[in-house]
Design brief:
Elements: H1 14-63, E1 73-79, E2 82-92, E3 99-110, E4 113-124
Antiparallel strand pairs: 1-2, 2-3, 3-4
């Protein structure tokens, strides 16, 4: 009896193609997830940097005023198309007499929810 021999098969089977497509889909999903996370992280970092710059700018504006002129304010500012709320809270005679506690808070809305950045400083009346 003669044995039947198969000729060497060319190409890929359906099972091999499905395995390759599944592996590609898994790897692509992982890469896409990392890319989206990276873009969100970069946007949050940019927004935080702009908020820090606005807070520092506002603190310098307050610093340029005379001691009696320092007062609480709330304004808004736009940088790179994003609107930030800049709130300055001035407390007189805190932590001691002839001192002002100044806190600048910059807040904005981000895809993950509301964010804020704040900085605080104490100014002393040296004109006494």
């Amino acid at each position: 009896m003669k044995k039947k021999t198969r000729r060497r098969q060319q190409g890929v089977s359906l099972l091999e193609a499905l395995c390759a497509i599944s592996l590609f889909a898994i790897v692509s999903t992982a890469i896409a997830t990392l890319a989206v996370g990276s873009v969100r992280s970069s946007a949050l970092s940019r927004d935080s940097t702009e908020a820090a710059m606005l807070a520092q700018w506002q603190m310098e504006q307050i610093r340029g005023l005379d001691y009696p002129s320092m007062a609480s304010t709330t304004t808004s500012a736009t940088m790179a198309g994003k609107t930030y709320t800049v709130a300055t809270n001035v407390q007189t005679d805190v932590p001691a007499a002839n001192m002002k506690d100044i806190k600048v808070t910059v807040s904005w809305s981000a895809p993950g929810g509301a964010r804020s950045y704040s900085t605080e400083s104490i100014y002393v009346d040296i004109t006494l």
